[in-house]
Amino acid sequence: MGLFSKLLGNKEQPLVQPNDNAKQIAELTGCECKNISGFLNSDSIMKLYKDESEKGQREGYIPVILVLNGHLLEMIQCNYKDNGGAESYRSKMLSADISHGESFLKQRFDENTEMFEEDFGDDDIYGEYTDGVTPALNFLSTDNNEKLILARIPANKPWEVFAWIPFGGWNECPDTEDMMAVCKYWHEKYKAVPAVISSDELQMFLSAPIKSIDEALKAAEEHYAFCNDTVDQGAGTIKALASTLKDSNVWYFWWD
Description:
Elements: E1 15-17, H1 20-29, E2 32-37, H2 42-59, E3 62-67, H3 72-81, H4 86-94, H5 101-120, E4 148-153, H6 161-164, H7 176-190, E5 192-197, E6 201-206, H8 213-226, H9 229-235, H10 238-245, E7 250-254
Parallel strand pairs: 3-5
Antiparallel strand pairs: 1-2, 2-4, 3-4, 5-6, 6-7
Helix pairs in contact: 3-4, 5-7, 5-8, 8-10, 9-10
């Protein structure tokens, strides 16, 4: 699933410029979008994101890096179309009650642990902590040929980006309202913000990562609730996942 996939690799700073892909996303979402090109080193992509975040605070937008793999465009279009168009969809999402983030995670945790027991029998979902894990300090990627777009979302709050970039609502991936609710809850609890979106992945950025293993364990339980593949097809157990969250600036989610 790419949870421990290779980082992009060169030390040159990426260039940001318009192209047809960015134009298509901009026309679809109503956001300012630019292509990210050049040498796509993980450090330089993170620097670009941090610089854009600081600029966004001054100018009133939230930056998100879009990875144009899979069917991201089609998924955004379908969500818009099923709800009366882009403006109608955004209005509906921005006015929705999204106070249920914590309760949603608790319910999903119970459901996912029950499924784990059915699939894996007596295996211990919590397992053991893993020593010597290197924290995630940069965004993850699996393909140097992926096309990256910098989208400047004209939103007031980080969780509102999904009203412009709705990619969920399929299989086990939460729909937009639930995703907004969870990200609102996590922003208030951890200051986590959505930063990278593809057709089946979400990466969140934390300026102040979790420092204690106890807090990391609580976060790992919530991660498993939000995206059970982080354990079932990734870390293997909740405590192993917690080991990867401590001191990490990046949270990674992938849905099959």
